[in-house]
Write a structure and sequence with these properties.
Bound molecules: zinc ion
Strand content: 35-45%
Number of domains: 1
Strand order of the largest sheet: 1-2-5
CATH topology: Metal Binding Protein, Guanine Nucleotide Exchange Factor, Chain A
Oligomer: single chain
Shape: globular
Structural class: mainly beta
Distance between the termini: 29 Å
CATH architecture: Beta Complex
Number of helices: 1
Largest sheet: 3 strands, antiparallel
Length: 115
């Protein structure tokens, strides 16, 4: 399913083929504070439509994930990382997908704090 979405101010816009019927609410140190609901898709299914120069890349801990947020409004619309086999992935913040109805998203808890 092709989806579009953006940060709050609209500078950062993306398009992605991603299943929005379910998402992950993680309890790791950053997801807990950020409140993101994430869905994952290979990087080849993701396209940044605008805002490349508006993204700030935040990294911590092992620095394997790029937490790219909009430098104007602070919203993280997506993050970038890789699977253990090296496949590059994007984590889409379902809260930033255009027209999303979170009541229709099956939200699964992920114990990221202990992974
Ligand atoms: Zn923004």
């Amino acid at each position: 399913m092709r989806q579009q979405g953006s940060c709050h101010c609209g500078k950062v816009r993306f398009e992605a083929d991603v299943d929005v019927s379910s998402g992950v609410a993680c309890n790791c140190s950053i997801c807990l504070k950020r409140g993101t609901v994430l869905a994952f898709t290979p990087e080849m299914n993701f396209k940044l439509l605008s805002g490349e120069n508006d993204l700030t890349d935040y990294q911590f801990n092992k620095k394997v994930i790029h937490h790219t947020f909009c430098s104007t409004c602070g919203i993280l619309a997506f993050a970038a990382g890789a699977m253990p086999d090296g496949t590059k992935m994007r984590a889409i913040n379902l809260r930033c997908v255009d027209g999303i109805d979170l009541d229709k998203v099956k939200i699964q808890a992920f114990d990221g704090r202990n992974h």
